[in-house]
Amino acid sequence: MGKKTNITLIGMPASGKSSVGVVLAKRLGKKFVDTDIVIQEKHGKLLKELIEENGDDGFREIEDEVNASLDVSNSIISPGGSVVYGQKAMKHLKEISVIIYLQLSYTAIKSRLGDLRERGITLKDGQSLKDLYLERTPLYEKYADITINEMKKTLAKTIDEICEKLGEKPRKKRSFKEKRFQKITNSKGKQSREKTDSTKSNKERADKKRFDNTKSVKEKSSRTRFGGEINPQKNNVQRKNLKKYFKKNEN
Ligand SMILES: Nc1ncnc2c1ncn2[C@@H]1O[C@H](COP(=O)(O)OP(=O)(O)O)[C@@H](O)[C@H]1O
Ligand SMILES: O=C(O)C1=C[C@@H](OP(=O)(O)O)[C@@H](O)[C@H](O)C1
Ligand SMILES: [Mg+2]
């Protein structure tokens, strides 16, 4: 497993092979290959059309052939869910990649899937989604090097778990405080926290802008009135005078 630079995701349709695959590729700095797209490109037709024209068995032959001749490196490979029927394809994918099975319950798959035929799933006449799930589960289990249970996990959590199982460094998690507040240093070198701009409400942003504008107008007028730069920290008399001046002018 150590020398393999490719990762192949297998699992039922809608288990997330394509959506998890593309994000995982970005996370690990790898290329992304959706072999359903390779099939469409090669045959110049949509998967749905290929299934209609060639039947389920004909489509699976095409799928087997395309996946078996995949020549890629440093890639996340996301084949279609039916790839596990292809012996040539699975032998090849096993040789060139670490195989990860994205496992999800039947109920979760059913609720994620919309119109089965529209989505182009290869179902034999009279076969239900439940039959398909039961038929395929042992095949996914047979080929998997690693199994990830996706139940009740967000896409990000699934990716974290894949990385963990692959022995990749975990993403540095920022604490709630870090996300909401940024560290600021005042003129005395003391550190405190202020809400980050992206987490401020519109009202808070508007208030801050108004405060900053007022501050700069006050600073400007104080310079004009008292001449040149002032240092309020050092000059208490000047500070007191300034306070009086602003109080008088604000009323
Ligand atoms: N936690 C999740 N992880 C991955 N996909 C999810 C998740 N929750 C909902 N989904 C949805 O499930 C579907 C997965 O589809 P897709 O990535 O095409 O799967 P596959 O390639 O295995 O058929 C997408 O519509 C995606 O938005
Ligand atoms: O499981 C299937 O029968 C299929 C799944 C599809 O891919 P996804 O698993 O990416 O949806 C696609 O390859 C084809 O329409 C057949
Ligand atoms: Mg897919």
Ranges where pLDDT stays below 50 over 5 or more residues in a row are none
Predict the CATH topology of the largest domain: Rossmann fold
Q: Please give the CATH class of the largest domain.
A: Alpha Beta
In the sheet with the most strands, the strands line up as: 2-3-1-4-5
**Mean pLDDT over the full residue set:** 85
Assign a percent range to the helix content: 40-55%
The general outline is: elongated
Please tally the helical runs, counting DSSP H or I stretches of 4 or more residues. Answer: 11
What is the strand content?
Answer: 5-15%
Tell me the major beta sheet: 5 strands, parallel
Protein name: Shikimate kinase
EC number: 2.7.1.71
Binding site for ATP: 14-19, 119
Family: Belongs to the shikimate kinase family.
Task: Set down the secondary structure blueprint.
Blueprint lengths: L5 E5 L6 H12 L2 E4 H9 L3 H22 L6 E4 L8 H10 E7 L2 H7 L3 H4 L9 H15 L2 E4 L5 H12 L9 H5 E5 L5 E5 L6 H25 L9 H15 L1
Parallel strand pairs: 1-3, 1-4, 2-3, 4-5
Antiparallel strand pairs: 6-7
Helix pairs in contact: 1-8, 2-3, 3-4
